[in-house]
């Protein structure tokens, strides 16, 4: 049960119903409890698939942030995306533990771990990812991690209930 009262969809204003329809999930209902944060949040989240980080890398990062943040909601929402990106069940279990299958994925996972745990990624972890990512990708990687850290904290602190099934970003 949520720590805040999620609004009923039929009680929302037309503007808020429109926002909800773009990503019809309990996360959005919780965001709609804020005064003006929902559109910006949804726009940022919808931007990542169009960014410079490959789908497989993006889902690995989100999976690791979710694991470090104990976010069942993020895991539930992203499981189909992880599978669609090409991750196997065995690889997903390894990523949850922070274990990459090669030097590149390990460097990315170490970067995620340091960012989540220490806020600022150290020089060694930064340099390891720089060997694989350009400046745009480094900036987007850092923002992606921060976005999903924020999301996990929002969901877990407010105890937003899991949806009955994952929600598509197709309308966002």
> What's the CATH topology label of the domain at 54-158?
AhpD-like
Helix content: 55-70%
Distance between the termini: 26 Å
Shape field: elongated
Q: Structural class from helices and strands?
A: mainly alpha
The unreliable regions are none
Strand content: under 5%
The residue-averaged pLDDT reads 96
By CATH reckoning, the class of the domain at 54-158 would read Mainly Alpha
Evaluate the radius of gyration: 16 Å
H/E element sequence: HHHHHHHHH
For this entry, give a set of tags.
elongated, mainly alpha, single chain, 0% strand, AhpD-like, 172 residues
Overview of this structure, please?
The chain is mainly α. It has a domain at 54-158: AhpD-like. Helix content is 64%, strand content 0%. It is built from 9 helices and no strands. It starts with 13 loop residues before the first helix and ends in a 14-residue tail after the last helix. The relative contact order is 0.18.
Topology:
Elements: H1 14-22, H2 26-31, H3 37-47, H4 55-68, H5 72-85, H6 89-96, H7 103-118, H8 123-130, H9 135-158
Helix pairs in contact: 4-5, 4-7, 4-9, 7-8
What's this entry about, in short?
By secondary structure, the protein is an all-alpha fold. It has 9 helices and no strands.
């Amino acid at each position: 049960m949520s720590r805040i009262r999620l609004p009923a969809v039929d009680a929302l204003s037309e503007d808020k119903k429109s926002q909800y329809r773009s990503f019809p999930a309990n996360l959005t209902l919780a965001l709609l409890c804020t005064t003006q944060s929902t559109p910006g949040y949804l726009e940022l989240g919808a931007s990542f698939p169009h960014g410079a980080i490959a789908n497989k890398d993006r889902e690995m990062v989100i999976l690791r942030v979710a694991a470090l943040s104990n976010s069942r909601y993020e895991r539930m929402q992203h499981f189909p995306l992880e599978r669609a990106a090409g991750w196997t069940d065995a690889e997903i279990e390894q990523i949850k533990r922070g274990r990459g299958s090669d030097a590149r994925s390990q460097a990315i996972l170490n970067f995620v771990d340091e960012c989540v745990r220490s806020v600022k990624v150290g020089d060694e972890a930064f340099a390891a990812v720089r060997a694989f990512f350009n400046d745009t990708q480094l900036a987007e990687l850092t923002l992606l991690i921060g976005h999903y850290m924020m999301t996990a904290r929002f969901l877990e602190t407010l105890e937003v209930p899991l949806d009955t099934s994952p929600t598509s970003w197709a309308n966002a």
